[in-house]
Design a protein that fits this description.
By secondary structure, the chain is of the alpha+beta class. The protein has 8 helices and 10 strands.
Length: 295
């Protein structure tokens, strides 16, 4: 059984077993003998381990409870992979990034079952703007990261047709690398590949990259659900770019290729250009897909 399917099976079984999936994560995992500790000085969102032989998840105390719920489930997936399945970064073909993606997928499956996500999607005709993502996140009572991870499992839903959505932020790869707007989490129809860490400029999204650097805080009428409790300033923009990306699909056999063409984008930026986040929806209806010969 593929590892992702196995994790999804665990997530479904645990959701049916545990009664408090939407409350304080300490109550959610206590029945399984997993301690959840909220630490004020934790430098990251979460960590998992087994001090004194007891499985424990550590959470940043200052994070919003929605982010804490997702982080706790993500860290529980690490405990499952490490102790029950023996999978960890460096084990076989599994890299740190692939393990993190699996843990995100487990957390989304556990907290937001597919029927709930499909129900939220069914109430809109198409995912057309960041407002639609905020609406879905609000209905799921989750962060935007959790919402996009959940949508990645529903890429064939009619509301996702000819659409790609992603979150991005500005950071550098390595200690000396240039700071740039880079992809974080994405979901897309038509099997577009938008890898984490990829620069917007590398994808050809030059207009979007420039709009993300625009000065000014914009409006501040809503929280952006990144896991922050307080409302953040927001800047809206829209435009068009010519994208170049990888693509893949599975029919009779795995096939890979390239996707390019004009995309229309709508963006919302929270915060300033140096420390903010982007929420982006792409209309990919004009993108052309070319499949590698012999693949």
């Amino acid at each position: 059984m593929p590892l992702r399917v196995l994790l999804f099976t665990f997530a479904d079984e645990l959701r049916d077993l545990l009664p408090h999936t939407k409350g304080d994560p300490r109550l959610t995992w206590e029945p399984l003998g997993i301690d959840v500790v909220k630490a004020a000085d934790l430098p990251v969102a979460g960590l998992a381990g087994a001090p004194d032989g007891r499985p424990t998840v550590f959470l940043k105390a200052s994070d919003d409870v929605r982010r804490q719920r997702f982080t706790a489930a993500h860290e529980v997936a690490h405990l499952i992979l490490d102790s029950r399945i023996g999978v960890h970064p460096g084990a076989g073909r599994h890299t740190r990034r692939s393990i993190e993606d699996l843990c995100d997928a487990f957390a989304a499956q556990f907290l937001y079952p597919p029927s709930l996500v499909r129900g939220a999607l069914s109430r809109i005709d198409r995912v057309n703007s960041p407002d639609d993502l905020f609406g879905i996140a609000s209905e799921l009572d989750g962060t935007l990261t959790a919402t996009v991870v959940s949508l990645a499992a529903q890429s064939n839903h009619p509301a996702m047709r000819e659409r790609a959505v992603f979150l991005a932020r500005r950071y550098a790869h390595g200690a000396t690398g240039p700071h740039a707007w880079r992809l974080q989490t994405s979901a897309s129809a038509n099997n577009l590949v938008l890898p984490q860490g990829k620069r917007l400029l590398t994808l050809g999204l030059t207009g979007l990259d420039a709009a993300a650097d625009a000065p000014g805080p914009g409006r501040s009428d809503e929280p952006l659900l990144f896991g922050d409790s307080a409302p953040a300033h927001a800047l809206d923009a829209e435009g068009a770019d010519n994208i170049t990306a990888r693509t893949w699909r599975r029919d009779q056999q795995p096939r890979s290729g390239a996707a390019d063409g004009k995309v229309l984008w709508k963006m919302r930026r929270s915060g300033d250009p140096l420390h903010g986040h982007l929420v982006v929806v792409l209309d990919t209806s004009s993108v052309t897909y070319r499949w590698a010969s012999g693949s």
